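User: Need the bound-state model for iron/sulfur cluster:
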Amino acid sequence: MHVTVDERTCEAYGICAMTAPEVFEVDTDAGHARVLDPTPDPALQPLALEAQQACPVAAITVTTGPAGDGA
Ligand code: SF4
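Assistant: Bound-state model below.
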């Protein structure tokens, strides 16, 4: 799994950080969210996908690979 945030699209709503605080944080000074861990533990995948779907401006991309690839 690989997680990215498009910082130009992000409007800093913070939904991602509330949904998956292990993966995202909002940098209020910069005005956008940041990915804390671009390759989070696979156990966090459901939350990362939930954050992706919850983002109002679709700034989050979660790429999932085959199980066990460590991606
Ligand atoms: S939910 Fe989307 S718009 Fe809101 S902080 Fe996260 S990436 Fe940015």
